[in-house]
């Protein structure tokens, strides 16, 4: 059987006898013909749409696609559209084939008798336990539309926060990459031209120029080793993060202590903690169970371990505010807001305000860092390029002084 997202191109006659054509997604050709007949089309030709030669593979589903899907489902259900029909409308309207496949698979599972939560749980790569548990809670309590709205908002806020962090990390990465590329081009292609020129001088070259020429010769001879070493180092780094928890924890601690970036990542971790816990608590999930889900959503080993300690202390009967204070990783303002929320019975509201505040703080910090790093890029590139140019022209300057 073909995928539920297979596209068929067709030609046929409509109810008025006019010749029409188009595309329709379906599980197989029979389903496509049945769908077209339902819409009053007498099919003359139908075939699978060929995949393009370039870029023919399905695009990868990203978290932003899932957030958009949940928002669309929320809108459909709030408008009174039945669940299965909502899948049909949202799925057919999605431009990404991989998302169409996913949505249609969920629709098929629901039509087969699965609950919405069970259908989502079959795709753990795209729907984590937090989303599945909240959807299940909504189905059981009859408030699926309300909880889907909360989940969609949570996903949108989370993705917006991740985008801000990526923006903060983009500039230093850009500086490093551009600096390496420019330096490599100069050392491999430009410096050798000057070296051949200097060979006819018959005089000793300045130390700085000799050092740059030696560096150029080394890069030309061992560029393959340098490139292979960089690739290997990157591979080992990724594997170490995935397979060595101690290394991952050490790296998370080091990142939080890093100048400029550390405070941003701390604020982001607090914002994710508050946003996730607020969403879970507002959905009626018990605090201990909510903390269990929140621990994996903070994005940092330090805050994950702190949340797990808070969960254990809360399960033993302690108050959330005191367990937060004992971890010593949450700002005093956050602890005070949580204390007010516990005493007033509005913990989800207070946590939501904390999340809003720290998300805005991250946004402002990223903008400030970007403004600071933009001139830094020019300085770094200027020093690299200028240094190499000066090294190449020093012998010429010396010749001019001698003459």
From TrEMBL:
Listed Pfam families: T2SSF (PF00482)
One GO term (biological process): protein secretion by the type II secretion system
Subcellular location: Cell inner membrane
Membrane topology, as annotated: Multi-pass membrane protein
Residue stretches in coiled coil: none
PROSITE patterns assigned to the protein according to its UniProt record, in alphabetical order: T2SP_F
Domain Type II secretion system protein GspF: from-to ranges: 69-192, 273-395
Residue intervals passing through the bilayer: 169-191, 221-240, 376-396
Main subcellular location: membrane
Keywords, sorted A to Z: Cell inner membrane, Cell membrane, Membrane, Transmembrane, Transmembrane helix, Transport
One Gene Ontology term, aspect cellular component: plasma membrane
Keyword Transmembrane: yes
UniProt record similarity statement: Belongs to the GSP F family.
Protein's name according to its UniProt entry: Type II secretion system protein F
């Amino acid at each position: 059987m073909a995928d539920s997202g297979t596209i068929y191109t067709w030609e046929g006659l409509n109810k008025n006898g006019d010749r029409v054509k188009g595309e329709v997604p379906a599980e197989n050709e029979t389903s496509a013909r049945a769908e077209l007949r339902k819409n009053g089309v007498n099919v003359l030709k139908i075939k699978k749409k060929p995949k393009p030669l370039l870029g023919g593979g399905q695009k990868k589903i990203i978290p932003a696609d899932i957030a958009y899907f949940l928002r669309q489902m929320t809108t459909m259900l709030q408008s009174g559209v039945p669940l299965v029909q909502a899948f049909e409308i949202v799925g057919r309207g999605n431009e990404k084939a991989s998302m169409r496949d996913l949505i249609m698979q969920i629709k098929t599972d629901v039509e087969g008798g699965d609950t919405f939560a069970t259908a989502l749980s079959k795709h753990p790569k795209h729907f984590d336990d937090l989303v599945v548990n909240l959807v299940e809670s909504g189905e059981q309590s009859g408030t699926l539309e309300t909880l889907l709205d909360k989940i969609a908002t949570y996903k949108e806020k989370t993705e917006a926060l991740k985008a801000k962090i990526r923006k903060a990390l983009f500039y230093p990465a850009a500086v490093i990459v551009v600096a390496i590329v420019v330096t490599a081009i100069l050392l491999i292609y430009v410096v050798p031209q000057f070296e051949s020129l200097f060979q006819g001088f018959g005089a000793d070259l300045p130390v700085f120029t000799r050092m740059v020429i030696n560096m150029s010769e080394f890069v030309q001879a061992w560029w393959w080793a340098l490139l292979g070493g960089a690739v290997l180092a990157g591979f080992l780094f990724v594997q170490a993060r995935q397979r060595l928890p101690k290394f991952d924890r050490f790296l998370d601690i080091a990142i939080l202590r890093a100048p400029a970036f550390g405070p941003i990542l701390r604020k982001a971790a607090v914002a994710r903690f508050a946003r996730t816990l607020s969403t879970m608590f507002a959905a009626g999930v018990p605090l201990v169970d909510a903390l269990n889900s929140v621990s994996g959503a903070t994005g940092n080993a330090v805050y994950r371990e702190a949340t797990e300690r808070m969960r254990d202390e809360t399960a033993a009967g302690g108050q959330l505010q005191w367990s937060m204070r004992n971890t010593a990783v949450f700002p005093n303002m956050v602890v005070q807001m949580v204390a007010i929320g516990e005493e007033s019975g509005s913990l989800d509201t207070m946590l939501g305000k904390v999340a809003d505040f720290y998300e805005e703080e991250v946004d402002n910090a990223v903008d400030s860092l970007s403004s600071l790093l933009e001139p830094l890029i020019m300085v770094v590139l200027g020093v690299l390029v200028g240094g190499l140019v000066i090294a190449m022209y020093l012998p010429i300057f010396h010749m001019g002084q001698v003459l």
